[in-house]
Amino acid sequence: MSNAHSPVAHHFYTVEQQKDSATIGMWLFLATEILLFGALFTAYAVYRYRFPDAFMVASSRMDWKMGGLNTLFLIISSVTMVFAVSSAEKGRRGGLLGFLAATGFFGTLFLVVKYFEYMHHYHDRDVPGLNFHWTGAPELANGAQMFFFLYFFMTGLHALHMLVGLGLLIWIFITAYQGKYSPEYYNPVEMFGLYWHFVDLVWIFLFPLLYLLGAHLPPGGGGHH
Amino acid sequence: MIEENVSLPRIHYLNSHYGWKSWLFTTDHKRIGLLYMISITLMFFLGGFFALLIRLELLTPQADMFNADTYNKFFTLHGVILIFFFLVPSIPGTLGNFLIPLMIGAKDVAFPKLNLLSWYIFVIGSLFTLWVVAVGGIDTGWTFYTPYSTTFANTHVIAATLGVFFTGFSSILTGLNFIVTIHKMRAPGLTWFRLPLFIWSLYATSIIQVLATPVLGITMVLIAVERFAKVGIFDPALGGDPVLFQHMFWFYSHPAVYIMILPSLGVVSELISAFTWKRVFGYKFVAISSLMIAIFSFIVWGHHMYVSSMSIYAGMLFSILSYLVAVPSAVKVFNWTATLYKGSVSYDTPMLYALGFIGLFTIGGLTGLFLASMGLDRHLHDTYFVIAHFHLIMVGGAVMGYFGGLHYWWPKMFGRMYPEWWGRLSALIVFVGFNLSFFPQFIIGYLGMPRRYHVYAPEFQVLNVMSTAGSSILGVGYLLPLVYLIWSLRYGKVAANPWKAKGLEWETASPPPPENFLEQPIVTEEAYNYPTRPAHSPRHAGKLTGGLAQPAGATGKGREAEVV
Ligand code: HEM
Ligand SMILES: [Cu+2]
After folding, report:
1. A to B CB pairs, distance under 8 Å
2. Complex ipTM tops 0.85
């Protein structure tokens, strides 16, 4: 256990050793995340290749404006996160708290929008396994359902990562409020920043693959109702 | 073994704290290693129990004891438990946790709390699996092939996949911890090419654990969701592709066979060096070959799918790549053999296991090459030949390496020796029992007996009876160490470094103090810096003079000067 005065845990010898360890550990963790999502992106590629038309038509049922708004929110939150880390580095506690709060705010906005999107799809009976109902061209039904399964699975996993991120953010905020961080020691803030950027980055890939694929078609093109 | 006059240290990691809390909330890597050891031992005997039931049923060609459904559950539970809950965590969780910080001169792993967490996650996964066993089992095979697992099986697939998901998560955390530990926690002077080969092999293992396991994890979740929601990406009714599942599964599970064998390869390198009293021949090649194996392991998974609608060109590619993976494995075998040459070999229990390992691993690997050639595999796929192939590597190889390592480091862990005579006897029993169990299976498989059936053609009976007899002997060979190792905890002869082996882990007391070294060690020499002494082995000299001889530079004065 680290003693009250030193942020260096008992089994490390120096601050640098501790910091490097955390950094390598975090990057390795992100590598595992890439493979976790990577398997899903692979599945997406396989089925988009198999059902090109169905994927395009199903994608036109997405609201790219909502998705675009969310992309914006996440990019802003990533920027505020950068400022949060740099405030921590400079030892500005007020700035750190403010930027963390802003990051949390935009992260939450993202989830709120996502919630409305999901509700929308629910009402439109787009949810495989729950109420999926396809009224478009019948030969596209299977591929469309596949698209929506992947959509919910991938964005769901992403949203789960956002939720975990917000939980961590609250913890960082509280410890920052308690004054645990200093220019010598702000590891957790920086590591959390890496995580947050990573989760944003996943979305940057999800957005075009899921929302923009059919954005040139009329909304819901060939779809139901 | 050399007699030594030693007494237990007054304070060590086992007696520094008391009470169950000091175990369940420990962050000491040594204690966590023991927690793993206890848990995987339970899983080992549970999985072994199912193996025995399988072998009993196969005594006769007809169904005598179990019907097809029950039999399917038995081989599934056998595979799931022994692969995911025993072999994958075995050496990394126990010996790896215990030894890495000791071998690199650190106080602990880089993330001690994460280390404890990974054990708890492993326990959660195990509980899922035990629950599955208790409520009626699962019958998909350890491979969970779709669409059977997602659509047709009416056993407890969801709980089982979640169990695998959890233990996979635990495996990732262990690997991550080890990589960071090996990078950042080495003692001053301990450069990469001074590291023990066991560390190199665990480093390579960890890379696989970190990069392959997430794919298995998400695949298991996809199966659970597909079963639960009745729709998913593997569902043929939707145009989904069961073969995609096989790709995702083997993308993990081929590398995973190296998660299981690489640590053992590392253990054997240590054993060969310690019991020939020599530096491992071609150290750098052996070290790098571990990394090569890790890299190659990621690009050969298709050899499990030659008959799953794979195109002939993809098959050829996977076939060639699979041959290549044999090269770094062979490098190790050749180098060990060269190390034995003119070494002063002593045949203590760990060395018996190591020698058994070399032979069986070689045959297991060579038969892997048979299977990697597409034409032959067309004939051998899903037969007992495959069963024999992987049991030679996983049981004859990996488990023997684990047992060898356990005996070798037992005095390090507990400060007491196991009874050597019993050790050698059971190593011998294991070897005999193992060969009798699995060699007949090569033949029956070649003759065409398929795997995963509880009935078979009568002409295969003789060989099957041999195999069942062998497994019973093997079972005895595994039970003996359970008994005498536990016995030795109390009654074993006190020992510190009975092998007079080199290596940082032997520089500190046995059992080690809570933070391993009283002062930070500083390393000034390569691993295995045994004195070159072609004519007179100090080990043997030690034996002649009553065992008190201290080879210069191995322990005692010559070495202490280097430890600041
Ligand atoms: C030279 C290295 C190796 C090669 C070329 C090789 C090749 C193969 C091939 C081609 C198969 C598929 C046979 C079939 O299903 O028709 C196979 C199966 C298998 N191998 Fe290996 N192998 C090698 C090493 C290993 C190692 C080191 C292990 C374990 C530690 C291992 C464990 C397995 C297992 C578990 C299976 C069966 C999986 C199943 O279908 O249940 N192999 N091997
Ligand atoms: Cu394989």
Report:
1. 100
2. yes
